[in-house]
Amino acid sequence: MPEIRECLAHYFYILWFFQWWIKFYLGSSLKLVALWADACTGEATHIEAAGNSHVYRLGATSTIYRGANKAQTSLWLEMWKKTAQNPDPPSIQTLELKAVDTTSRAIILDMGLLRLK
Length: 117
Known about the structure:
This protein is an alpha+beta fold.
């Protein structure tokens, strides 16, 4: 089953990278600074940086979705999204990478308050 091999390879690479990064650059902290996304074909015309085939930084009012056609979810999580009902959301910079886990099909980043898949 190629998915298991690929997932394990990515998992061990991520573990190695984070261990190296913490040891040489950050001491013991891996705080989330920002979320970035690459534009799909339809978004490239609406986002200036994306038109040049660049990734772009997401903000608290982001409406970008990813996933399968019938199961798309917002890239910017609802708890941190700035809306009329939530005018002052917490900053994503309060999140810090605590651990990296794996399943047979995904790598899961444990950010303390949430787990990103």
